[in-house]
Amino acid sequence: MHRHQQEQEPSGPIRVLSVASEMFPFVKTGGLGDVVGSLPAALRTEGVLVTTLLPGYPSVLDALEGAVRVAAMSPLPGVEISLLEGHAAGHHLLVVDCPHLFRRKGNPYLAPDGTDWPDNGVRFACLSRVAASLAQGQVPGRCPDLVMAHDWQAGLTAAYLHYDGRPAAPVVQTIHNLAFQGRFPVADLERFGLPHHAFAVEGVECYGTVGFLKAGLLFAARIVTVSPTYAREIQSPEWGMGLDGLLRGRADRLRGILNGIDTNDWNPETDPAVLFPYQVGDVVGRKPNKRAFQAEFGLRQDPDVFLLGLVSRLTGQKGVDILADIVPRILDDRTQLVVVGSGDVAMERALARLARQYPDRLACHIGYSEQLGHRIQASADALLVPSRFEPCGLTQLCAVRYGCVPIASRVGGLADTIIDANEAAMTSDVATGFLFSPVDGDTLAGAIRRAATLFRQPARWAGLQRNGARYDVSWGRKAQEYARLFRRVLGRAEIGMAEFDQSSVRRRPPLAGLSQSTRGARAAYQAARRGRVRANDPFGRPG
Ligand code: ADP
Ligand code: GLC
């Protein structure tokens, strides 16, 4: 039994260490960064205080304010790091500063030539090892109650704790995408600081490699993935990517909790990227944005044209090749498509070629642009999400909030967050978009045709937009589910929010005041509740 489960403050806040390789607004390659950046604020209102542990990339170090070195460690053989603490963009951060592993500009995983950094194994083993040491209380005052390990990059955290066998905070392993598993050669086992006997089927071994995500799934106290449908899909051989057996074996520890989005960032009334601001649900007020967007992309400015959008990583997962194949079929002089995306070079080239072939119907921005990612949602009539699989997906959530109607494959989180405009749903006025399956060119083209037909019936189309705007895309209820899960893992009783005194929380950063000894932590916490906090102590330790 974990120390934390035996002796925790039953009605106090839960202190979570969220361990991740990306976090918006400092570093983002996809939805993982969005989730890691937006969940903490929502959890705070549920009595869960999050500190995020990040690698010390240049963008993170640049953003860190009031950085203090709280520890120096050698987490792996031959690797020395400084653990920095500070704040950035309202977040409480711990940062693993290790110049030779993390001070590299650009993409967090890829070298400038587009291949993986050759030392990615050591880089993220280092991150996980530091997380494990924090979970064991090795840095006084910064021991969390629980660790949230995101994706493979944090996967070894639970394995280190298992092989160390010391008391530690429990780990909840989150799967954002099972396609990325972090597999590395067995020859690196020692560099990862893992014992030889760890290389076993009941250990970190994964099809002859060291599997970081596999280790997390095996040793974590609980597994969360980002939608209920994906939680079911990954237990099947078709979508389990080799880990379905393990996941079926741990089915009682696995659940899906949908993602939300930051509704402050995603507010068309205040969004700086939106040229003509409008209120959520104002289907008329958004119209000037379409015209301006058509102009921006050199397309004919025509409100009656059906304007499709796609904003995505360009990879096989996202089904962009399926879309590219049917472009000649779906685009005509009443249908345009704008693509904002980057990724697979062959797909980038194919789209650029199509744009040259159909200059008045298809326009592309090949690259990453946060601004265009927002603007497309405020401007396009419909958003295409033809993913082959989709753990949750965030773009369809942004779309419905902005009055852009999603046309998506019926998989994973897309199936869980979109109500298809079939006759029944239209009659009951609950539809929010279009779903198609199986995922192929014909069904995608069929869904686009169905959507185009409704688009030509403005009142019915506006109904879809308004239903979407009413759909709750916020973190609210999802954060409650996380908080409930964390309490259950920690063996804490459910508490009513009235009993939870948030004023005591606001005074201290998330991991503050917890000493290695839980008795000390409790005294510190109780003193802080009574308001005896040293004025100048950055960690708010009781005076
Ligand atoms: P995934 O994480 O699999 O890429 P999600 O839908 O969960 O998919 O999240 C993708 C996030 O990245 C969204 O916020 C989306 O708007 C953004 N995004 C993806 N590609 C681009 C791009 N080329 N430019 C701007 N934003 C992008
Ligand atoms: C992954 C998934 C995406 C999900 C995101 C955030 O990148 O591909 O579906 O929304 O993580 O959880």
Structural overview:
- The protein is of the alpha/beta class.
- 36% of the residues lie in helices and 19% in strands.
- It has helices at residues 3-6, 31-44, 58-63, 99-102, 120-135, 156-164, 212-219, 228-233, 244-249, 287-296, 320-330, 345-357, 370-379, 395-402, 412-417, 423-427, 441-455, 458-470, 476-489, 503-506, 518-530; strands at residues 14-19, 48-55, 65-76, 79-88, 91-97, 146-150, 171-175, 183-184, 205-206, 209-211, 222-225, 254-256, 306-314, 335-343, 362-366, 382-385, 405-409, 434-436.
- Helix 10 packs across helix 13 (370-379) and helix 14 crosses helix 18 (458-470).
- The model is unreliable at 1-7, 495-510 and 512-543 (pLDDT under 50).
- Bound molecules: adenosine-5'-diphosphate and alpha-D-glucopyranose.
- It comes from Gluconacetobacter takamatsuzukensis.
Topology:
Blueprint: H1 3-6, E1 14-19, H2 31-44, E2 48-55, H3 58-63, E3 65-76, E4 79-88, E5 91-97, H4 99-102, H5 120-135, E6 146-150, H6 156-164, E7 171-175, E8 183-184, E9 205-206, E10 209-211, H7 212-219, E11 222-225, H8 228-233, H9 244-249, E12 254-256, H10 287-296, E13 306-314, H11 320-330, E14 335-343, H12 345-357, E15 362-366, H13 370-379, E16 382-385, H14 395-402, E17 405-409, H15 412-417, H16 423-427, E18 434-436, H17 441-455, H18 458-470, H19 476-489, H20 503-506, H21 518-530
Parallel strand pairs: 1-2, 1-6, 2-5, 6-7, 7-11, 11-12, 13-14, 13-16, 14-15, 16-17, 17-18
Antiparallel strand pairs: 3-4, 4-5, 8-10, 9-10
Helix pairs in contact: 5-6, 6-7, 10-13, 11-12, 11-17, 14-18
This protein binds adenosine-5'-diphosphate and alpha-D-glucopyranose.
Adenosine-5'-diphosphate binds at residues 30-32, 34, 311-313, 340-342, 368-370, 373, 393-395.
